[in-house]
Amino acid sequence: MVDLEQLGRAIAYNQWADEKLLAAVDGMRTEELERPREAYFGSVANNLWHMLIVHRLWLARWKGDPLPPVERPVIPSWRAAYAASHAALREYVASLTAADVTRRVKYTPRSGVPREQPLDQLILHLTNHGTAHRAETGLLLERLGRSPGDLDYTVFMNEVQ
Fold it and tell me: Of the candidates 3, 9, 6, 5, which has an alpha carbon nearest to the alpha carbon of residue 156?
């Protein structure tokens, strides 16, 4: 049986951890965020964009909406962009029923091979995906003396209880 409460906690954790990352980039100049780094996406800004666009892509897939463009626009405020994304994710997940989350979502990833998976598993994928990229971004920031701190789920649970 699907645990709707746990899905809500997973989305809340994703937001909490993203906000810690965003706090670590507060005050960084655009040049610092864009500077090439040894990272999968090449810069802190590109890592931030990847995590943000993935929120938007998955939400569009879940809702059956057209996919947003993946090209990175100028982001005047990372915090504002993420806040809008987090609000949309929270609202969507809060509206779900047990029947909704067992619905199979059809999508086509970059590989071009069509896929289909249950919505609850895709919600968990979104949060796990964020964890992976926050770890990489957190390491980049730590090297710059801007560590986001401990992003463990248990730390989140201790803070929100």
Answer: 9
List, run by run, the mean pLDDT of 10-residue segments along the chain (161 residues).
89 98 96 93 96 98 96 95 98 96 94 96 97 95 96 95 75
CA distance 112 to 145: 40
Q: What is the domain range of residue 89?
A: 4-160
Domain containing 109 — which CATH number?
1.20.120.450
Q: With a threshold of 0.90, does the pTM exceed it? A: yes
d(CA 161, CA 85) in angstroms, rounded, equals 24
> 6, 14, 13: which is closest to 98 by C-alpha?
6
DSSP summary character for residue 105 = E
Q: In the chain, count H helices and then E strands.
A: 7, 2
* C-alpha to C-alpha distance for 128 and 157, rounded to whole angstroms: 16
Q: What is the pLDDT of residue 116?
A: 97
